[in-house]
Amino acid sequence: MAPQLTPQHFLVSTPQPYIAHVEINRPSKMNAFFEAMWLELKQIIDALSTDPDIRVVVLSGAGPKAFTAGLDVEAASQSVLFNGSSDPARNAVAIRRYVQEFQDAISSIERCEKPVICVLHGYSLGLALDMSTCADIRICSADAKFAVKEVDIGLAADIGTLARLPKVVGSLSWVKDVSLSARIFGAEEALRVGFVSRVLESKEKALEAAMQMAQVLASKSPVAVQGTKELLNHARDHSVADNLRYTGVWNSAAVQTSDVERALKSGLKKTKPRFEKL
Q: Do residues 161 and 148 make contact, with C-beta atoms less than 8 angstroms apart?
């Protein structure tokens, strides 16, 4: 990671070559977020996105109780949301800017050039859904408890869950069920609707599985992996025809990589290919 960054609210490590592990590190408050944390998260993810020594990012929460319990409500009460101008128009502009900055920070996970594997455990509420729906792969422990909690604090979720969750799972009825009710749902329900792809017996097992998955992804051509993520995200938001056109343009450059020759030769020789940093 860029040497000038010294995270205050996250632990950032490289447990294996080419793999970054980012842990939300506020376990005494169930990893609840306040403004400095999401701004710092963006700095970390942006740095890892272009770091040639990193090919995969694993995102998790420190401590046994929660990935994150969401927004720190006490801290939020001191923000511009409740302490702005008395003029409604000026207050609206300040709130809009605040929300856009927050959205942009969390969306950095989705924009990251590298695949992001999110490991959810314990309480994974509110902002946890915003963050995890930005990730490429989600796995969780059996004790995970999820909820789109915003309606319980008098708001519609506005940092990304309502935009992304309907595209992550296959049932809009289910999305409306959990979003309108703010009810808690567990790991098995999350697996059944496709919100997570795996459920492991514990946080430790989930992290172990994530690291094994990350090791596999890190062994692949970084040109191919980053291109695949980019094209899949584009396909989600565009028509088939638009995506085919974009894929053709993208691969007209990417197919010229030496990684193709290396991958093909290693397949023929039954050897493990080595790819240059990107």
A: yes
What residues contact residue 56 under an 8 Å CB cut-off, 6+ apart? 18, 19, 20, 114, 115, 116, 117, 214, 217, 218
**Model confidence pLDDT, tens digit, residues 170-196:** 899 999 999 999 999 999 999 999 999
Phi first, then psi: give them for residue 70, nearest 5 degrees. Answer: 105, -140
The pTM of the full predicted model, rounded to 2 decimals, is 0.94
Q: Write down all domains in the chain, each with its CATH number in brackets.
A: 10-218 (3.90.226.10), 222-269 (1.10.12.10)
Q: In this predicted model, what pLDDT tens digit does every residue of 201-238 receive, in sequence order?
A: 999 999 999 999 999 999 999 999 999 999 999 999 99
3-state DSSP assignment of residue 102? helix
Instruction: Spell out a b/e string for 185-217, using b for 16 or more CB atoms within 10 Å of the CB, else e.
Output: bebeebbebebbebbbeebeebbebbbebbbeb
| Angstrom distance (rounded) from CA 204 to CA 185 | 21
61: closest CA among 9, 101, 1, 3? 9
